[in-house]
Write a structure and sequence with these properties.
The protein contains 21 helices and no strands. By secondary structure, the protein is mostly helical. About 50% of the residues are buried.
Length: about 500
């Protein structure tokens, strides 16, 4: 139980910092949606997708490799060498980013048919190495289990985002250029502040060629996995751009924005669970690793309980939320919320339940799985987007994540078997997902008005459902919460 309470404690603390970051996105949304059109959001989403694609190359699989080898370090000196080696490799990504920036005008012409967005693309190129450095710095807080320090630097970044975003987009009216500039400024601020206030004392300032070789070898298969993941995570934006228009991408982007609370939880779980699990796994004497297996099972059930309920809330009240925070021009985006929130759930479900592949260092499996999923996603987008536009893109994304999870789960079970009660868990997911899709569909397409009381009653029933299905127990939930409060007070 103490392991699960530690997981909850770290997750909540990390979630607080990540929540602040996600809150800034929602805080700026009312300003941005009144200063930018759905087509402008389509441009930002397309550029974000492009940055993600290039980052898959420049990342070199180091996010996973650094975490894996950090915990293999014999002492603080060796661990300091490992993280400094990663830092240097991240800095090296600035070279290809600068080269790419010289072709900003050509890229603007290719993507949007005009050179009007040359400077926007230039700042997108600059965001590449900065984004990788932000990732590297944030990993240090995980490795050294310093969630409150992570929250401090997150607040710094959040304040910078607010000031830069409102100044450049709303006051100076720089449009999409201002939005990209604000992103680069706030990310740069977090790298500088984090380095001088935390990271510089952890580095040993010695580049370790042996560990560099090991990490690059470990991460090399993940480069191709990252590229393939781009096809099933982000290629739908290009299908929408080809078959539809930037406005449709804008609706899709708004749906993705309102699914951010799930991504917030995912981020918090990633920062807490991996460190906790590998620490416990390496300490556990039992060769069968019974406690480690039970930890995965319990965390997975708890994760689904929390995220599925939140996804249901966002979907059921999606139209009201979008109407309050943005304008009526974006209401169609509510149709994408259930599809993208449940996609995010399966994304993190894979991270929790497919640890067997990582434990056996069989990372090539991830590449094979993700290539299969990417091919499936491209075919699904090709079929669904021309017929159903951004809703079709959401369906393709959800189906792809389900396929990805199922393949990774079944392979992982061969290496590290965990007995999950999948029948109960999927009964819960299917029921809640169905209701989450039906309600916004009825409201938008059939023009059926459902008042707040009816929706609230439906949500309460869904909250009770996991207790009825015995996915979690009331006593267990109370125990988790009381344990967290006690640790916080201590």
């Amino acid at each position: 139980m103490s392991q699960k309470k530690d997981f909850i404690k770290d997750t909540v603390v990390y979630g607080l910092g990540s929540g602040i970051k996600k809150f800034i996105g929602l805080f700026l949304l009312p300003f941005y949606t009144r200063a930018l059109t759905p087509s402008d959001y389509g441009i930002l989403e397309t550029l974000g997708t492009s940055v993600f694609f290039v980052s898959a190359f420049l990342n070199m699989g180091l996010d996973s490799a650094s975490g894996f080898y950090f915990f293999k370090g014999k002492d603080d000196r060796e661990k300091g060498e490992i993280i400094f080696t990663v830092f240097v490799l991240r800095l090296a990504s600035a070279i290809p980013a600068l080269i790419l920036s010289f072709f900003s005008s050509q890229l603007s012409k290719i993507l949007f048919g005009t050179e009007q967005y040359t400077y926007v693309i230039f700042f997108s190129c600059m965001s590449l190495p900065i984004g990788l450095l932000v990732s590297e710095q944030s990993h240090l807080y995980r490795f050294y289990r310093s969630p409150w320090k992570y929250n401090t630097v997150t607040i710094i970044q959040s304040l910078a985002s607010i000031i830069a975003g409102i100044s450049l987009v709303v006051i100076l009216k720089y449009g999409v250029l201002g939005a990209q500039m604000a992103s680069v400024i706030s990310s740069s601020a977090i790298v500088i502040f984090s380095f001088f206030n935390f990271a510089k004392n952890k580095y040993t300032y010695h580049f370790n060629f042996v560990f560099a070789k090991k990490m690059l070898k470990y991460g090399f298969p993940l480069i191709w996995a990252g590229i393939a993941s781009w096809f099933f995570i982000s290629s739908d934006r290009y299908f929408l751009l080809h078959y539809k228009n930037l406005q449709e991408i804008g609706y899709y982007s708004i749906g993705a924005t309102f699914s951010q609370p799930i991504n917030l939880i995912n981020m918090a779980v990633q920062m807490s669970f991996g460190v906790l699990f590998y620490s416990e796994y390496n300490k556990e004497i039992d060769p069968l690793k019974k406690d480690s297996r039970k930890l995965i099972k319990d965390v997975f059930s708890l994760f689904l309980f929390v995220t599925v309920i939140i996804a249901s809330f966002l979907s059921i009240f999606g139209i009201e939320l979008i109407g309050i925070i943005t304008t009526k021009d974006y209401l169609l985006g509510a149709l994408a919320i259930p599809l993208l929130t449940f996609s995010a759930i399966f994304d993190q479900a894979f991270q929790i339940t497919a640890l067997g592949i990582t434990l056996r260092e069989k990372t090539w499996y991830f590449t094979i799985i993700i290539v299969i999923t990417a091919i499936f996603n491209v075919i699904a987008n090709f079929i669904l987007i021309p017929k159903y536009s951004f809703v079709g893109a959401g369906i393709a994304t959800l189906l792809s994540y389900i396929l990805y999870w199922s393949l990774a789960y079944n392979i992982s079970q061969k290496f590290f078997k965990v007995n999950h009660d999948l029948i109960r868990l999927f009964s819960f997911i299917i029921i809640t997902f169905g209701i989450s899709c039906v309600i916004p569909f009825f409201q938008i397409y059939l023009n059926i008005h459902l008042n707040i009381l009816v929706k609230s009653a439906v949500l309460i029933i869904l909250i009770i459902l996991p207790f009825v299905l015995k996915i979690v127990s009331y006593r267990e939930v109370i125990s988790y919460l009381s344990g967290f409060v006690k640790k916080k007070n201590d």
